[in-house]
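Our consortium's second objective concerns turning raw sequence data into structural hypotheses that experimental partners can test. To show how far this objective has progressed, the report includes one record in full. It was chosen at random from the queue rather than selected for favorable results. The single chain below, 277 residues long, was entered without modification.
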Amino acid sequence: MIPAVVYAIPAFVLLVAVEALSYRFLPDDDERGYEVRDTATSMSMGAGSQVIALPWKAVVIVAYAALYSVAPWQLSPGSVWTWVLLFFAEDLAYYAFHRAHHRVRLLWASHVVHHSSVRFNLSTALRQSWTPMSGLPFWMPLALLGIPPWMILLQQSISLIYQFFLHTERVDRLWRPIEFVFNTPSHHRVHHGSNNVYLDRNYGGILIIWDRLFGTFQPEGERVVYGLTKNIDTYNPLRVAFHEYTATWHDIRTATRWRDRAGYAFGPPGWAPQPRH
């Protein structure tokens, strides 16, 4: 089964080109815009992620199908309430996945790819990880709820397509009720900020209500500085894909205590052992 998001790739590429041209004809000194090497890196990461994700999707389908087969009930795709449940359950699963990938370093080593650009435009949305395996457990409960696997995969694609449009500086704040309920470009600019006030905020996928409920919401205020707290300064796709795994392994290998090794692996990014007295 080919994910629906794959069929949207030509439209993504076209919209990237349109947005890039908009900076040529309608420049804005307050926006970072595009840079050729940065965009090429994002496109390379996106292409690589799709190549790797296709065979991995077979594993995902088998796992969902196995859990769906032992679910205590199986919900009908013909019921509107199944779709309502799926929408909210999938979005909550994405929130949990996204938050965990910012708070556990081994998971962050995969997700950091998406945050490695110092620019924020539609091509940034395509800068995706080459190690997608860590996401599987977060959506498995949906199959146990009795939601058919094909529906889960479809809603995941819908969420990813929606999130593509969040990666832009060309859209200012939207109507207040929309900003209150839905994830928007303004909210997602905050998420990509390296400013202290913006770190680990606005994890939502389609909805921003989870961040409001769980205390991780931050409105856009001061100008966003995009990228990492320590930028990697490279356009090499291999380094972009694996630099944090390399750094994590270095810290684990050089640690002298098992609890420090565990901290480097499973603590938040930037974790360091307390100095001994």
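The partners drew two points from this record. The chain has one domain: 4-266. Residues 172 and 186 are 7 Å apart (CA to CA). Both points have been shared with the crystallography group to help prioritize constructs.
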